[in-house]
Write a structure and sequence with these properties.
This protein is an alpha/beta fold. The protein is built from 8 helices and 8 strands. The strands form 2 sheets. Strands 2-3-1-4-8 form a 5-stranded parallel β-sheet, with helices on both faces. The protein has a 3-stranded antiparallel β-sheet with strand order 6-5-7. The structure holds BIS(adenosine)-5'-pentaphosphate (AP5), magnesium ion and zinc ion. BIS(adenosine)-5'-pentaphosphate (AP5) binds next to helix 1, helix 2, helix 3, strand 6 and helix 8. Magnesium ion (MG) binds next to helix 1.
Length: about 220
Amino acid sequence: MINLILLGLPGAGKGTASERIVDKFHLTHISTGDMFREAMANKTKVGLEAKSYIDKGNLVPDEVTAKLVEERLSQPDITEGFILDGFPRTTNQAELLDGILDRLHKPLTSVISLEVAESTLVERLSARFMCKECGATYNKLSKKPKVEGTCDRCGSHEFYQREDDKPEVVKNRLEVNEKMNAPLKDYYDQKGLLTVIDGERAPEEVFEDIDKVLSNK
Ligand code: AP5
Ligand code: MG
Ligand code: ZN
C-alpha cells in the first residue's frame, strides 16, 4: 500500500508526475485543484464558493478543502493507495489531514516534494493549455498534442487556458503558495517522510526518481 503526498509549487509537475505514477502503481489520484475545477464547471455550492478564491490565485478555506478530501478518501475505490496532489498546502491542512487519515486508518507512506525554480514555473504555467472536453494537460513548449489541434486522449479540438494561468493571477498564486511551502516541508521532514526531488528535468527523469522512492516502500 502506497499512500503518497506530492508537494510542489504551482507548475512543479504534480499532475504530470501523477499520471505516470497512476500508470505504474495504480494509485487513486486525488487532486483538489481538479476536484474544484469539476465543481466549478458543474456550478455546485462548493464550486461557486471556491471560484472566488481560485480565480484570484488565493487558497480556498482549509475547512472546505479538508471536507472535500475526507469525503473522497472515504470512498471504497482506494484499494492500492492514493496520491494527494495539491493537498495539504498549509500546516493547518497537514494537521487536519492527520486527523482524517487517523479516522480512516490510512497511514501516510511517503511525501515527495518536486522542486523547480520560480522562473521555470512561470514559463511552464504561461505555456500550459488544457483540453476542454477531458481536461488533459498540454504545453506549448514541452508537450504539444501529437496531431496539432487534436487532443491525444479524447480527440477533441477545443482547448482553453486555465483562468488562474493568466499572468496577473500566476504571480499571486506563486506568492501565496511559496509562503506556505517551507513550513509544510519541515512538517513532513520532522516525521521522516519527506524526499525532495529535482523537478527541473524532463518528466521521464523526474519519474525515475519518484519510482525509486515508491519501489522501496
Ligand atoms: P491546482 O490545480 O492544484 O494548482 P497548482 O497547485 O497551482 O498546481 P498546477 O496544477 O498548476 O501545477 P502542477 O504541479 O500540477 O503542474 P502540471 O503537471 O500541470 O490548484 C488550483 C487552485 O485550487 C489553487 O490555486 C487554490 O486556489 C485551489 N486549491 C487547490 N488545492 C487547495 C488546497 N489544498 N487548499 C486551498 N486551496 C486549494 O505542469 C505544469 C505545466 O508544465 C504543464 O503544461 C506540463 O505539461 C508542464 N510540465 C510538467 N512537468 C514538466 C517538465 N518536467 N518539463 C517540462 N514541462 C513540464
Ligand atoms: Mg495540477
Ligand atoms: Zn481531451
